[in-house]
Protein: Thymidine kinase
Amino acid sequence: MRAIRENGWVEVISGSMFSGKTEELLRRLRRAEIAGQEVVAFTPAVDDRYGQAELGSHAGHTWEATVVDNTAEGVRSIPDRADGASVVAIDEANFFPEELVAVANELATAGRRVIVSGTDQTYRGEPFEPLGQLMATAEYVDKLRAICAVCGEPATRNQRLVDGEPAHVDEPTIVVGAEESYEARCRSCHEVRTD
Ligand SMILES: Nc1ncnc2c1ncn2[C@@H]1O[C@H](COP(=O)(O)OP(=O)(O)O)[C@@H](O)[C@H]1O
Ligand SMILES: Cc1cn([C@H]2C[C@H](O)[C@@H](COP(=O)(O)O)O2)c(=O)[nH]c1=O
Ligand SMILES: [Zn+2]
Structure:
């Protein structure tokens, strides 16, 4: 006979910007709370779009969160700060370093339900780590699509715009922003300047 084990696991919610990742994360957290589970949420210090200590969606919904430095040290502080919570949520994972992969898996191995959300592609259309590694090692992955701002087809890509024009390939990878500097686009409509 097999022993009963209290397994934890990692769930990843990914996809383009505006695809509903944060709305989906908040939905899962609301349900966990209704089930009487202790929930803790973390957000990186770099993402100040919605104020400091909350997760926020483009539609304006929020959830109280602990702000963590987006450094290896900050990520390593998550298990201690998660205390006894059985559900650990991490939003905007694309701003965290690769140490997040080990920490998420460590928490799951210790029996926690870990829900990680973040966009999986840079504005260049490349993998946005650590999402690639998280998606590969997670038990559950949901990749959401937004609506392409140009043609209305399902959007999987992140269009960065500078003064209304496609951003150049040599720009920094990390630029915090929302509607003022990004659009969701499909593969055909996505553009990166190379001149
Ligand atoms: N191009 C778009 N496609 C779909 N939803 C959009 C788009 N632009 C704005 N939205 C809004 O964004 C909301 C999703 O916000 P959010 O959960 O914060 O997305 P994400 O976390 O994936 O960036 C949608 O419910 C909708 O109200
Ligand atoms: C594509 C891309 C995005 N970012 C930033 C822009 C936003 O602040 C977040 C994504 O937020 P969302 O909740 O998924 O809407 O990431 C970036 O810094 N670099 C990029 O290439
Ligand atoms: Zn399109």
User: Anything to note?
Assistant: Residues 17, 21-22, 47, 92, 94, 119, 122-123, 158, 173-177, 182 surround LXEULUCI (ligand 2) (CB under 6 Å). The mean pLDDT is 94. The chain has one domain: 9-145. The first strand starts at residue 9 and ends at 15.
